[in-house]
Amino acid sequence: MKDYYYFLGIKDDASEEDIKTAYRKLSMKYHPDKNDNDAFFAQRFMEIQEAYETLSDPQLRRNYDHNIVSGRGSSRSSLPPTVKSFTSNKVHAVKGEEVIIKWNTLNADVVKIVPFGLEKAYGERTFRITEFKNGKFVIILHAANSLTRQTAVKGITITEVFNNDRERFRDNVEDLFQQRDTSGTARSNISGWAKIVVAILLLAAALYFILQEF
């Protein structure tokens, strides 16, 4: 059964005024007209509408409370929720790059991934990062057990990189290997070894960025 109290971000004993206040705030935030009719916001808005229509009606709310309490007692786990795994195929990405996240939770009947919304207890999502904030894109998974009122949280941070960063590393490595030292002195030999060491470090960094693309 859907947890309407969770949808509105309120407690089970919330007053009618609490329900109205939460609904107004969330409906304004997630209204499709204010979010370019994005599918995620449209779905979230429908969930908020559904929750409000049920909880704002005294009789519907009493029936809902009775059913959800019975359901929690019979089918909900009393063990604390756990995030078994939450991974991303990339920790560095350029804007617009495709990213895949996967997750698996235990003993959680409500799973929410910010900024995407409610999800199943386990799954996979593919998306493209359109905006970074201060060079970071943060994804947070909340796994909640509505019976025990406990929540497990885990996050992933993806750092923004630029295509010219990867190209610059490649160019630096190529330049170092193409340079010729013809002085023939001991000093030049030491300098040559230093360049080799730097080249190896730059090569390792370049390979790291390249591998992030796969």
Automatic annotation (TrEMBL):
<dbReference type="InterPro" id="IPR001623">
    <property type="entry name" value="DnaJ_domain"/>
</dbReference>
<dbReference type="GO" id="GO:0051787">
    <property type="term" value="F:misfolded protein binding"/>
</dbReference>
<dbReference type="GO" id="GO:0036503">
    <property type="term" value="P:ERAD pathway"/>
</dbReference>
<dbReference type="InterPro" id="IPR036869">
    <property type="entry name" value="J_dom_sf"/>
</dbReference>
<dbReference type="InterPro" id="IPR018253">
    <property type="entry name" value="DnaJ_domain_CS"/>
</dbReference>
<dbReference type="InterPro" id="IPR051948">
    <property type="entry name" value="Hsp70_co-chaperone_J-domain"/>
</dbReference>
<keyword id="KW-0812">Transmembrane</keyword>
<keyword id="KW-0143">Chaperone</keyword>
<dbReference type="Pfam" id="PF00226">
    <property type="entry name" value="DnaJ"/>
</dbReference>
<dbReference type="GO" id="GO:0051087">
    <property type="term" value="F:protein-folding chaperone binding"/>
</dbReference>
<keyword id="KW-1133">Transmembrane helix</keyword>
<keyword id="KW-0472">Membrane</keyword>
<feature type="transmembrane region" description="Helical">
    <location>
        <begin position="192"/>
        <end position="211"/>
    </location>
</feature>
<protein>
    <submittedName>
        <fullName>J domain-containing protein</fullName>
    </submittedName>
</protein>
<feature type="domain" description="J">
    <location>
        <begin position="3"/>
        <end position="68"/>
    </location>
</feature>
